[in-house]
Amino acid sequence: MQAFPHGTTATPTAVAVPPSLALPVIESHFSRQLHPYWPRLQEKTRLWLLEKRLMPADKVREYADGLCYTDLMAGYYTDAPDEVLQAIADYSAWFFVWDDRHDRCVVHGRAGDWRRLKYRLHAALDAPRHHLHHPDPLVAGFADSVLRLYGFLPHTWNQRFARHFHAVIEAYDREFRNRTEGYVPGVEEYLALRRHTFAHWIWTDLLEASAGCELPDRVRKHPAYRRAALLSQEFAAWYNDLCSLPKEIAGDEVHNLGISLVTHEGMTLEEAVDEVRRRVEKSIGDFLEVEQEVLRFAEEIDDGTVRGKELSAAVRACTGNMRNWFSSVYWFHHESGRYMVDSWDDRSTPPYVTNEAAGE
After folding, report:
1. 96 classed as catalytic
2. 179, pLDDT greater than 90
3. For residues 284 and 276, is the Cβ–Cβ distance under 8 A?
4. pLDDT tens string 209-261
5. Total-model pTM
6. Sign (positive or negative) of CA dihedral 55, 56, 57, 61
7. Residue 4 known to be catalytic
């Protein structure tokens, strides 16, 4: 089944989902949404990547639209104000470029480059205004996107976002060391680390920016709300592992749930793939159950006061966007050139990355 018969990219192509990766429940129970601002979003993020020199002009021209980074965000935060969605989409595009730099630092043994970048990103997160003109485009682009995100909600939200992203940076550092040392983490260790490298709590924080409302702890930490948020992110991370396994095996990766299962649980590759898929399918079923609890909780919050109505509406909006994440992630993996390994000249080297050292 196809969500949009010809995809959402500028160049129409039919979207075919391989049977091994098809999830009928997503195609039937999670209707795909797309923010009406998407065409403009794609154009402006493309220009932002060029302006911030995050990708060479030829790479942007040839690959940016086909990578579908804006499609992913426009299918997630579907009711965000245009300005908020633009900031989120630019930040998301930056995140993918950062992930690629991290990968190239591992592949080419650039430990010093990675260490300097790590410290610079920590500094830019705490003082983005002071890093807007940093000579490394990745640092300057990060500062720009973070500063914009910091403008939508109160300082307490900014502090939480920063705390969560500091943890993401450190998790990427742990992954750098694991990969350079050839260390495959155990399953539970991997799952805990993955929640940070996939930035579970960052995308969840941004639900509040999309809704225009910072949720108080009593709402955000409510067991049903927190579980729904975690399940939507776990689905995304595990489905990503399922889809990217061929690419990561080709690149001698050590960070994939399937690889941890093979290494530490004695599974064959086929058994590991089946287990990852089982976890993916279970996360969907569990979300459908807890989603109803969250919606009942949203009704309880609405106590007739202005604040109660505001919080209730925000919880419903955040929950609706958690649901959107399932379909957006699913179709992204079958439309984005990021996962079309079989079309690459070198299965271990994505054609949209730059292999030269950067940021020095």
Report:
1. yes
2. yes
3. no
4. 999 999 999 999 999 999 999 999 999 999 999 988 877 777 677 899 999 99
5. 0.93
6. negative
7. no
Let me know if 303 is exposed, middle or buried by CB neighbors in 10 A (0-12, 13-18, 19+): exposed
Q: How far is CA 163 from the centre of its chain?
A: 17
Q: Who's near 259: CB < 8 A, 6+ residues apart? A: 184, 245, 248, 249, 253, 272
CA distance 2 to 144: 36
3-state secondary structure at position 353: coil
Please state, for a pLDDT cut of 90, what percent of the chain lies above it: 83
Residue of 142, 161, 165, 198 with catalytic role: 198
Residue 227: the pLDDT is 98
Q: Running DSSP on this structure, what letter comes out for residue 36?
A: T
Name the catalytic one among 30, 95, 161, 326.
95
Sign of CA dihedral 178, 181, 184, 189: negative
Phi, then psi, of 116 in degrees rounded to 5: -65, -40
Q: pLDDT tens digits, residue range 63-76?
A: 999 999 999 999 99
Is residue 198 annotated as a catalytic residue, yes or no?
yes
Average pLDDT, the chain: 92
- Please pick, among 53, 96, 148, 160, the residue that the annotation labels catalytic: 96
Choice among 46, 195, 220, 338 that is catalytic = 338
pLDDT in tens, 70-121: 999 999 999 999 999 999 999 999 999 999 999 999 989 999 999 999 999 9
Q: Which amino acid is at 186?
A: G
DSSP 214: P
Locate tokens 């490394």: which residue?
136
Please indicate whether residue 304 or residue 341 has the higher confidence score (pLDDT).
Answer: 304
Considering only CA atoms, which of 225, 165, 203 is closest in space to residue 75?
A: 203
